[in-house]
Amino acid sequence: MIRKCLDSEIKIINEIINDASIAYKGYIPDDRWKEPYMPMEELIHEIKDGVVFYCYEENGTILGVMGIQDVKDVKLIRHAYVRTLKRKSGIGTQLLHFLTDNQDKPILIGTWKDAVWAIDFYLKNGFRQVSQEEKNILLRTYWNIPERQVETSVVLSNRT
């Protein structure tokens, strides 16, 4: 079942993000990696900044989370993570479709350029990778991230 996360589930959201983000270790630049990958204070800030989290729940256990954020004239998919033990079981695909189907605004997704598995996942689900020039403009327009992260990221879109 997919549903909006409850405020009381913030610790579970944080646990899933930090469990699943281990996949990025060694792939993203060392100067961008930290442990935990997303401290609780950062997650709280993201939620206050408008990221709304949805979860995939099975038998009372949350197995994956994905956020969506309304920013200006687009929606951003943010912080998409599935518990390590449940990866490649279709949970991410179900969450992505739940959040992106029937949206009236373009959907943008930013991820690390060396996270080829993440890029492949979004490509398989109908997104296209934008050009380097367009990526730079989009990241500076819709995200609030350091310049180093702009340099080491890609953006995917569901529209041309």
Description:
- The mean pLDDT is 97.
- Strands 1-2-3-4-5-7-6 form a seven-stranded mixed beta sheet, with helices on both faces.
- It starts with a strand and ends with a strand.
- It is an alpha+beta fold and 160 residues long.
- The protein has one domain (2-157): Gcn5-related N-acetyltransferase (GNAT) (Aminopeptidase, 3-Layer(aba) Sandwich), CATH 3.40.630.
- The chain has helices at residues 10-20, 40-48, 91-100, 116-124, 132-142, 147-151; strands at 2-4, 52-58, 61-71, 74-82, 107-112, 128-129, 153-157.
- It contains six helices and seven strands, in the order βααβββαβαβααβ.
Q: What's the architecture in CATH terms?
A: 3-Layer(aba) Sandwich
The CATH superfamily title: Gcn5-related N-acetyltransferase (GNAT)
Query: Pairing-aware structural class of the strands and helices?
Result: alpha+beta
CATH topology: Aminopeptidase
Mean pLDDT: 97
Give the % helix.
Answer: 25-40%
Domain module tally: 1
The first-to-last residue Cα distance is 31 Å
Largest sheet: 7 strands, mixed
Quaternary structure annotation: single chain
Spatial order of the strands forming the largest sheet: 1-2-3-4-5-7-6
Tell me, briefly, the overall form: globular
Please indicate the percent range of residues in DSSP E strands (runs of 2 or more).
Answer: 25-35%
Order of SSEs: EHHEEEHEHEHHE
Which value, in Å, is the CA radius of gyration?
15 Å
Number of helical segments? 6
Number of strands: 7
CATH class: Alpha Beta
Low-confidence stretches: none
Blueprint of the fold:
Blueprint: E1 2-4, H1 10-20, H2 40-48, E2 52-58, E3 61-71, E4 74-82, H3 91-100, E5 107-112, H4 116-124, E6 128-129, H5 132-142, H6 147-151, E7 153-157
Parallel strand pairs: 4-5
Antiparallel strand pairs: 1-2, 2-3, 3-4, 5-7, 6-7
